[in-house]
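A favour, since you know our structure tokens better than I do. What I am after is a single protein written out in full by you. Could you add the entry underneath, on a fresh line?


***
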Amino acid sequence: MDEHKQGPRPAPIGSGNPRITVAFPFAKIQLAEPARELAELAALVRGLAEEIAGLAAAADPDQAAAAAGLAAEARALAARLGAA
């Protein structure tokens, strides 16, 4: 009964534009080259991984393949980050 006392509902308002606007919580996205310190860290990790691969090959041939794979991944990462 209360519904009748409130009166008619207003008609929905539309602009006729089917597009939707999406707002992101940030003003802009900035892309930058990796920091020099990150490249230096990658070079350090590469050196450590290569050293571990050498030690593993001498100590336990069964672990040599896993250590060599880790060293290869470290080399690839260092190259992507621009480490010399």
User: Anything to note?
Assistant: The first helix runs from residue 2 to 6. Helices lie at 2-6, 36-59, 61-80. Residues 41 and 78 are 8 Å apart (CA to CA).
